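A favour, since you know our structure tokens better than I do. It will help me judge whether the discrete encoding reads sensibly. The space below this message is yours for that.
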Amino acid sequence: MSQSGNKPNQNKEEQIKALREAALKYHEFPVPGKISIAPTKQLTNQRDLSLAYTPGVAAACEEINRDPATAFRYTARGNLVGVVTNGTAVLGLGDIGALASKPVMEGKAVLFKKFAGIDVFDIEVNESDPEKLVEVIAALEPTFGGINLEDIKAPDCFLVERKLRERMKIPVFHDDQHGTAIVVAAAILNGLKVVGKDITKVKLVTSGAGAAALACLELLVHLGLPKSNIWVTDIIGVVYEGRTELMDPQKSPFAQKTDKRSLGDVIEGADVFLGLSAGGVLKPEMVAKMAQKPLVFALANPTPEILPEEVKVVRPDAVMAT
């Protein structure tokens, strides 16, 4: 009995191991990494070289010096985005540092190129001080047509984005907040239509109170979800009025007046679970206590808060997303 009972876990471990090995090979061969730089002009003879570089390049420099707006005409700036991180909040891996975050930034770069035709330089910065990080990124403005902030921990990311938007004359977008919020809000709106529920009347419980989760909640409130219907939990439990540990100005508006202190305490009767935290935090017995036809969005990356097959066992009526 014990051997057969272990088979699902063994199969899962084997799948994870196989995926890891395949991912490492994918990143290493045929050349390391996922991006490269390719010329957009012909470089077949000496004249081409004299136009691309000295002396011909001086003409483009002079025009840009005369009128900075012509940089969008004579350089790649208009189609070039900087994906910038300091590696302090990478996927579900946490603060792994700038260098270890590079595969993720390269991954974002290839998505930009593949699906939007936008070129990207990935910039990994060894700087954990948010004020200094702002200075570094702001100084890059001449290079890029836009900045995509990525995997910067909360609450630092809020300050970094706000100050950069105030200082820079190019678009600044924090993908972890706004990109995630747009997709999640659309999915929740459509999920509620599927199960026949009204956004103004549902109870939503989150696991996670970082940049992504809070941006999702702000957008959902804007779309009609009452703030009083939202229960936020993080690594130390429920966000409640009077709590002082691990609180910040972005999290505080969602504090509830309650004596409940854990995810298990507040999940009962919830219509929506929104997970943007860590793998395995939502237990099957918690899902069993949710309202009829619940939406279970387990979005922790790379491992969801609960697996779809676990949800199906206890709540076959659930709408599941990972």
